[in-house]
Amino acid sequence: MANQEDLLKKVVAHAKEYGFVFPSSEIYDGLGAVYDYGQYGSELKNNIKSFWWKAMVQMHENIVGIDASIFMHPTTWKASGHVDAFNDPLVDNKDSKKRYRADVLVEDHIAKLEGKLNKEVEKARKRFGDSFDEAQFRDTNGRVLQYQQKINDINDRLKAAMDNGQLADLKQLIEDLEIVCPISGSKNWTDVRQFNLMFSTELGSVADGANTIYLRPETAQGIFVNFLNVQKTGRMKIPFGIAQIGKAFRNEIIARQFIFRMREFEQMEMQFFVKPGDEMEWYEYWKEKRMNWHNALGLGEDNYRFYDHLNLAHYANAACDIQFNFPMGFKELEGIHSRTDFDLKAHEKYSGKKLQFFDPQENQSYVPYVVETSIGLDRTFLAVMSAAYQQETLEDGSERVVLKIPAALAPVKVAVLPLVKKDGLPEKAREILDDLKFDYNCQYDEKDAIGRRYRRQDAIGTPYCVTIDHESLQDNTVTLRDRDSTKQERLHIQDLKKRIETLVSVNTLLTKL
Question: Fewer CB near the last or first residue (10 Å), C or N of the chain?
């Protein structure tokens, strides 16, 4: 775990040093849990968005995209349940004066028990070697069963307390588990109370007469209130989806772990409208589709897993997360939820307008059910950076820090490097750059020795470097260097663009889906 925490520190430092992510308003000592994306970070972010949008909208005839406003009529959030139910259970430690989410304290305790359980499994695996039967060991080993029973009991109590809103039961659970504050080490807790996560502001020029409105805590409601607009203008037939990428805002009690949990973040969501009764079939379909999307990135299939929700949201009849193995362990990256007809029916009730689909085959109108896929853009960014960051010792004994970002997502696709700053090599390099820059984000660099320039490009994740040398002036050939293998190939300038296209195009990812 220490190595993993160390990795997060290294990623944070690298992201700042090389222009990926900066603390927001840093000259004023920053603002808690708010970050700015730098010159390379914004490029990587846009490339992730593009891959998601193309995979979701461009590759599906029955999915279209919208861009709804951040401000919405305040009744929207009454209908969605956010005004009354968008709360986290809050608890303070009286000694450290630190504030925590009560359910997260319990979940962290469960994670420690799971760690102990897994340690028993690993010890047995080493002892028995190839003959080890993990499933049988988990089902029969006394100590493992004991840990599992504890975990199940705590989960049951947590679920009951959360589902019923019993804050006293949640505090009792914290006390029974003897959970201590990570800062003070004491068990001196306040009562648990609810904390609404929405940011409110006022609409209008005069505060006295202004309406209280909210910064949206999710992007989904913009899709639901536009359901009929899109369905009618796009002549959409069930099943169909509406996709959106946009900012959302949550006044998190504890925002931490770099860009993993922020107060201002970006979501990539798709709401898929289906016939009631078909939702579980589509739920399974989108689980598979979304996992394929993640695996296409090549960050390692072992780094992903499904996690079924124990505590279902008030609107869901099935829900799971795709978790990624972040430096902080396996955490939620994407949620896939069967939302039933809760949202559209709630908006019907509060607006007094019908939000139904007329099915000509059934000759009847109905409120569709919804299957949602919702992925955090910032978390995907962190997943890519964490998996890509590597420290290597090369064959010649030299060391490098390299970001092995999937080529299609890399901020800079090609670096064009003249071997020396004379003899017409810069001019030739500029010619090549001027040709490539119409299709790719390229970089030109003529400062320092070629090896040092390669290191700079490795550090920002540039997958290919084109080097122009004296031979290039005679036979129109250049060297193409691969970031990951450091291997080089010689090819003709006229073949360069086509070769790069096959290596860095987003189509290399889309064809895997």
Answer: N
Contact 18, 412 (CB under 8 A): no
The CA distance from 296 to 243, in Å, is 20
CA distance 464 to 486: 9
3-class DSSP state of 168: helix
User: Which domains, from first to last, does the chain contain?
Assistant: 2-70+216-385 (3.30.930.10), 93-184 (no CATH), 403-510 (3.40.50.800)
Sign of CA dihedral 290, 295, 300, 301: positive
DSSP letters for 414-451 = EEEEESSSSTTHHHHHHHHHHHHTTTS-EEE--SS-HH
User: Rounded to whole angstroms, how far apart are CA atoms 331 and 321?
Assistant: 9
- Comparing CA positions, the residue from 485, 484, 464 lying closest to residue 415 is 464
Biggest distance spanned by C-alpha atoms of the chain: 81
Sign of CA dihedral 277, 278, 279, 283: positive
Q: Are strands 369-376 and 329-340 parallel, antiparallel or unpaired?
A: antiparallel
Locate 249 and state its tokens.
């805002």
pLDDT digits (tens, 9 = 90+) for 228-285: 999 999 999 999 999 999 999 998 777 678 999 999 999 999 999 999 999 999 999 9
Beta strand 464-468 with 414-418: parallel, antiparallel or unpaired?
A: parallel
- Which carries the bigger pLDDT value, residue 221 or residue 197? 221
